[in-house]
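Suppose you are handed a protein chain with no further information: no name, no annotation, nothing but its sequence. What can you learn? This example shows the usual starting point.
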Amino acid sequence: MTYNSPEEYIEAMRTILNSGDFAGAQQLSFKAVEHYPDHAEIKKIARILAPSVVRVSKRPPDRDTLVNQNWIKQNRMQYRGNWIALKDGKLLAIGKNVDELVEQVGDIKEKRIFVTAIY
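A reasonable first move is to predict its three-dimensional structure. Written in structure tokens, the prediction is:
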């Protein structure tokens, strides 16, 4: 079928979508962008219908996380029922709640301090 305007493409894509043919609407959106690459509504529809992109990052595990997890495994029973603050695998503070930890160590976010309850 031939479409003579962006509006005709848009109407056709909506009709195809309403019929349940997602793949057909997606294919038509590719053609619409080829013919009208600067049309805002066509670009929007094409972006919505575009195949999703998955990016996998193969970063090594965070060293701080690993040493903190190891500390918890080794010392968990001793601090059970408390909240703890760790940094680089070292115990900074013990408390009954997060507020007590913050009183002892200050701003936990800025200092990259790991805080958790031990059960």
